[in-house]
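Lab manual, section 2.4: Encoding a predicted structure.

Procedure: take the sequence of the chain (750 residues), apply the prediction step described in section 2.3, and record the output as structure tokens. A sample record is shown.
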Amino acid sequence: MDLFDQHRQHLIEAEAPLAARLRPRTLDEFVGQEAIIGPGRLLRRSIQADQLSSVIFYGPPGTGKTTLARIIANTTQAHFIAINAVLAGVKEIRAAVETAQERRGQFSQRTILFVDEVHRFNKAQQDALLPWVESGTLILIGATTENPYFEVNKALVSRSRIFQLQPLTPADLERVLEQALTDPRGYSQRSIHLDPAAKSHLVNVSNGDARALLNALELAVETTPPDTTGTVVISLAVAEESIQRRAVLYDKEGDAHFDTISAFIKSLRGSDPDAALYWLARMVYAGEDPRFLFRRMLILASEDVGLADPQAVLVVNACAEAFDRMGLPEGHYPLAQAALYLATAPKSNSVMGFFDALTAVEQQQESGVPNPLKDSNRDKKQFGHGAGYRYPHAYRDHWVAQQYLPITLQGQVFYQPSGQGFEAQISADVARKREAQLAVAVEAANLGTAPEGTAEILTYSPPDPAHDRWLQRTIGQVGEQLAQVRDRLFALAPPQRHHVVLDLQAQSGLLTWEALRRVPEGGVYTCTATPADAEALQSQADALPTLLRPIILQTPLTDLPALLTAQFPGLQFDRILGRNSLMRDPERQSIALHLAKLLAPAGVITLAETIPRHSQRISQLLQPGQLEATLFDRWIQAESAIYNDSNNLNFNWDADTLQTLFEVAGLRVVVQTDSITTDVYVTPALLDRWFASAAEPPSYRDRLAPLLSNFELMILHQHLTASILHSTIPWQSAIVFLNAHHSLPYTQTE
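Recorded output:
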């Protein structure tokens, strides 16, 4: 680079827009996307270890796709090449391949190719990339605002991990504003006062787009003269001038189009006029052709209303003809009227509710389409779109209580049935259905979990048959009862693919291997109590690639928080799981307090603890007539003394005790106690273990010894041997399942 090139580069950097100047350079500067780049996640570990495989970043503008690629460029030892699919073609791809081959041959150096707007490549250009990505000559990083399952070559997608970036939250955007005002690359050298009302407006209207936010701030600062003290005051009026209208993410040929029309149709089919008006308003606000909407409603009038109301087609068709005569904006009335008719079947003058919905779109930050309402035709398996949607026709009266509005608008009422004509007859029915929908949402909130199917899948990995077979074999090596407990724990709060999971006491790996299977783009941390357990787990984990192994921590639970803080500062867990890991520890209250601090804001703790005092008692294996009555009574009394010993950590607790531990830690708790029956084959070794003398830990005989003589204990041993040796007995265990989370209910904002 000569002197003129350096001068030109310096001018470009100095005159770059604020959003470009403030682009984060490291992971620590990156704001948002904790679900995929937060501590403990696979993507963060891959970047830090410089072991990145081919990835595609998918998400709306201004969420950090290109920034992540630049951070990777700053941290990797690989050669980094960046091209833009809008400007590049096969020629640039061939040049990148030649460079990659040369670097690999001369320096044994990998090459990362970043393709911005990768969906802009045509099929031939994407095919030109495929063999080099497949052979490992190039590691692909693609960035796209379009659904990769629709716009990117399927072969490329199948060889890449997909990471879905979400719009930034208001808290994230406020951090971006703070950085802009305090960073030397921004406005730290200037005196700027941002009114709270102006700040709220900029954050709200930017709609999760950091670039739009910074562009608006820059326009406000650069066009506002300083006051007499030299301070640039950004008032609400100035902020409104800088960014006046919310940009709704909507492309008539893209993923948002299909998801939104899918939500609209499902809302009509589900007899939810509020949700129907909201999705209708969202499409109209984004510029959707009303004739397209009328065509879809005509289809629905025949398909989902049919002979239940033969007038539906006539009414919708009449509204469509009226729209053609009126035009916009008055055409909004018949458009909304047709939607209301299909959602409720009456003809009414309540179409003004549509404009309430339009106001909600204008004034509130745009909420994503709930996962059950998304179009599932293309990517249900990978992103889980449409999962959890309940088909109304499969239920009694062709209706089921489920939410059709976004989470932030649930409970909002747009449609108010009047007391006029036929509409008065449906008023009570609409109210009843709203109450049922609200009850479903409240029940989910009380359990601290998302309603079924609403969790968004943010990542996807190409299948690895060998890895999957290894995990399935490992997971399958457990008994029937243990498998029931494991499956129940994961069902209480199913983890998402990008979650970070902590197994509190791994031992055989019962929960570790299942967690590893469920969070391929997240991370699994597992705690073992003994070096032997840690060694056994490590020997099994060695069969996996380094980045896909669980992180094994050998330490008592009381020391776990300090160990995590020292080795993984700032790490929090989306799911904390445990089986029989807590209640026998004398420091269980302290451990519960520490676990609450390790839990992410939307995380869930799920535990399964066997309650010995409510489980099978050995005295129940004999009938009273099989033993002399006095001895049988003394046996029961001695056994009861064991289970009622307040100093014994095995027996001095129950479900209420476990619940109290986590309530004291400030968590919301739900507990359920189940009885599980397992067939146990009685061997001589089992009986010998029960009646061993001076064992460590104390045996069943040792615990009975203070109240029964040696002769009486011998009689019990003999009778049990005669009655149950070499037989299969039903053994009952009482297990308490705990679900604990922070006071804010678990929702899909992770």
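Check your result against the sample. The domain at 170-242 is CATH 1.10.8.60 (Helicase, Ruva Protein; domain 3).
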